């Protein structure tokens, strides 16, 4: 603070110093936060491959690894991850009560609704399609776009609305081939993998473009037809790849540092879980050209 120059400055400075000393003493005298008795996780109750009430998702499994490291039980606070998830979970607090949960296990790195940790994996959107149906030569997004126009012009391409897939098809004049799905579906039984597990597997659509962890997990679950997963590189104007982090509340610096320590110390277990779930992991070559 810069004080205005005046004859009273020495007195004002003394009063300010006294006030700061009193504030520091009061802060030091406050009780430290109570020790954690559980790892309390914010989750969507029906959002495989990430989480569900049975604890079967990627984020459930990683949370259990953290709980074991901390020697604490893991408890979940569930709320559908559609609108206002953070406000209704991590930042939700009734007067006189504690927050119901303290960590979101998966957010994009830099997500401004939370204090995001350092990223712990890097994935991208992917094409998913049945093998043996004329698309086996497709090994990249570029290969897909170079298909014979007669073939491209007949494909039914499933995607979630307001996703990078919409922008990609629009950029390459393929939007008329899109079969859009609502990402904000009010049906509590709806889950993101339905586009693959039901419609792609049954032949209702020919190709799906979805977030990589969804692509990898549900492609593995579908046994017939066998499905191919092709990770997509970002392009100028279309961002497909994202680094994923965890999120805590702003102002909880020590907790954030502890979570980052848990990520680092448990990295081999985290990687094993991601691989088990078929998550496509990519490097910087999948980022859009600078």
- C-alpha Rg (nearest Å): 24 Å
CATH class of the largest domain: Alpha Beta
Number of continuous helical runs: 9
According to CATH, the homologous superfamily of the largest domain is Periplasmic binding protein-like II
H/E series, N to C?
Answer: HEEEHEEEEHHEHEHEHEEHH
How far the N terminus sits from the C terminus, by CA atoms, comes to 41 Å
Task: Give the tally of structural domains.
Answer: 2
**What class would the helix/strand composition place it in?**
alpha/beta
Strand content: 15-25%
Topology, number of strands: 12
Helix content: 25-40%
Q: Poorly predicted ranges (pLDDT <50, ≥5 residues)?
A: 1-31
Please outline the major beta sheet. 10 strands, mixed
Which word captures the global form?
Answer: elongated
Q: What is the name of the CATH topology of the largest domain?
A: D-Maltodextrin-Binding Protein, domain 2
Mean pLDDT comes to 89
CATH architecture of the largest domain: 3-Layer(aba) Sandwich
